[in-house]
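Exercise: predict the structure of this protein bound to magnesium ion.
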Amino acid sequence: MTRYVYEFSEGGRDMADLLGGKGANLAEMTRLGLPVPSGFTVTTDACREYLATGEEPGELGAQVAHALVELERRTGRELGGRDNPLLLSVRSGSKFSMPGMMETILDIGLGDVSVLGLVKATGSEHFAWDSYRRLLQMYGRTVLGIAPELFDRRGSTDDPARLVEDFKQVIRDATGEEFPQDPGAQLYRSIQAVFRSWNSERARLYRRREHIPDDLGTAVNIQVMVFGNRGPDSGTGVAFTRDPATGARGVYGDYLPDAQGEDVVAGIRNAVPLAELERLDPSSYRQLIDHMGRLEHHYRDLCDVEFTIERGTLWMLQTRVGKRTAEAAFRIAEALVDEKLIGEDEALARVGGAQLARLMFPRFEAHAETKPLAHGVPASPGAAVGAIVFDSAEAVRRAATGEKVILVRRETTPDDLPGMVAAEAVLTSRGGKTSHAAVVARGMGKVCVCGAEELTVDVEARTLTAPDRTVLAEGTVLSVDGTAGTVHLGALPLTDSPVGRFLDTGERDGVLTDAVARTLEHADSVRHLGVRANADTPEDAARARRYGAEGIGLCRTEHMFLGERRGLVEAMILAEDEAGRCAALDALLPLQRADFVGILAEMDGLPVTIRLIDPPLHEFLPDRTELAVRVATHPTAHDRRLLAAVERMHESNPMLGLRGVRLGLVVPGLVEMQVRAIAEAVVERLEAGGDPRAEIMVPLVGTVGELRIVRATAERVLAEVSKASGLTVDCPIGTMIELPRAALTAGRIAEAADFFSFGTNDLTQTAWGLSRDDVEASFFPAYLAQGIFATSPFETLDRDGVGRLVRIAVEEGRATKPGLKIGVCGEHGGDPDSIHFFHDTGLDYVSCSPFRVPAARLEAGRAAL
Ligand code: PEP
Ligand code: MG
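Solution:
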């Protein structure tokens, strides 16, 4: 026989799957000997069966009846009795807390007879009839589904006995039925109503947002009622064993004299600080502090509790390991280590990379939460205030005068880079978390909200139109919250981040930075995964190193072809003969070399993986339409040639076109130039007494044949530079694995590769057939809403599909070349969940933008626990 009912004395904290979090913890408190009103829990099994079949399991009725008899025996009171009747609460409680999302029914057991018993027992007509009135209202709304307004409309008298009659009439009118006087019927139907509330719209919505599975079901807790609203010696409150906002030691909470728990939760009346209870009822206060101390020791963590005092007697109604801010999480974990309640491993397990990331950036002060002007995708965290500008040049111009600006674009392109550097934040109306704006902003640690589709950006008119039709001109001050994904009108007050300062300078300024430092040290001591950074300037390399990066896993050389060098790239593309192309490449060579020298110097002694140019060349040419207009209005020979080139190179699917290794194979001299620049930079660093560790990486390889050809060229150039310099320039030559075919033929590709690095951005794009640039703004929201994705596969690695390709490539690559070094440099390298996968798959390192390096170190440590 399946058991569907457990008395509190039979359960325990490790039974949350079956009893829900609330039931499991009530059981645990009961077993600890704390004063918990008696009761029992109906299991999630029963709920699941009810939801699947529409009927509760056959044995449930008898098991509830049995538990009820036991409860009546233990309390010496009878449900629905004439004297001192037993009253019950019926509350939901699933494995994961879903605050306020499901139903509660109080005062079960009251009826026309027992209400008189309650009057006698309590000596208060008002209290008894008011309790009956509450039951009718809650039961009517929850069990019978009557609109709450129908009760509110009737609720025009202060006499609770009259209201009881009125509310019975409401029930009669709405359902054609009488309110059941049988307390057993009240109880069963309330249990069913709680089961059903698992599938209420708000509960479903909440679960989707919190990634809670839909098939868990809720348990139902049936418990003897205690009353905090029985006069000045009664009351109710919530308390935390430490401050959940800061993590500071010392109990913290609110107390509401002469009130029911529901009044506190609903915020109906003003509570007093918990310290006030010490004055009002010192004995209960001391007991409460004592119980909370025991709970914290027992759970070895911050606990929150709900309690009620009924006529001087303290009752514990709920406890759980309490929610806390990121700051409190770090402080409490390390404080518990100092108090010898937990070890460093457990402290590390209790914090996360996402929490660390939240602490690294300035924030808007909590009280400054105003209604946002618009919402978008929270693409790069932090908070920034500035005047809006609509192009890169204006951003640069204003920033040069010291003005703080926010660059607003429909979407960004590599052309916007100078403006992004100059701006405090980037705001776009299109694109998702892997759009150009998002990736580049994250790389620079700039605040970014993208895909704010409610905003209309008119670059020509230099205006931004808000959803309420307000038109904002250039120069209007906005506040952008990249952590929340919101945009606000005006300047919200900012708070600085001590953790960000610490990570940048090593300067510790208090308990929080101490706690973060200790946790990171421990993570570094246990992790197996290396952590590198994606960086392509000496400044980013330096910052990455300060943040603890152990090298560069991806230096995107195309970023070095922008700005004034664009002319040279144009010349290379337009060259009509070998000589012209060579001249253009020769002009690029010293510039590239100087870039590499700077980066290798910053990363001296650590590996620097330099990737050969990747994007389609037409990205370096002007926009086709603009150019066509120019040629039509003011034709010049140069523009005509340029337009011809743009048209020649136009592709319908550039992401699947002439890019990556394909460029090196069709543009003569390009690979030579880049490899020479790398080799000569190595020579220059060696001659300066440095320890350069350049690695050459080939993008978008689909077959070993491509890699073999590029490798031969690269080896020839390395040999030439070695010979010319008299020094040994020995750079490992590896490949990105970012096409499904590369993953599936990794065994062959490994024959020609010294290392692999997964480009999971392209691998996700090509495995799913989803454009990384468009998809988040187009049908993603629909997919998320319909539960096809829980999160974007561009953000968190899709383990089943893309992850399988990764596993195959690791296995087959290492079968060919045991010990082959393998990393990942797509955006997933900085994503907490994905980092655990890369650890489990046996990768050697992850590489992510510099600002994600600390969180990656932390998660790599957690993955190794
Ligand atoms: C990738 O595809 O994952 C990658 C790192 O390369 P990029 O983002 O530059 O295409
Ligand atoms: Mg790529």
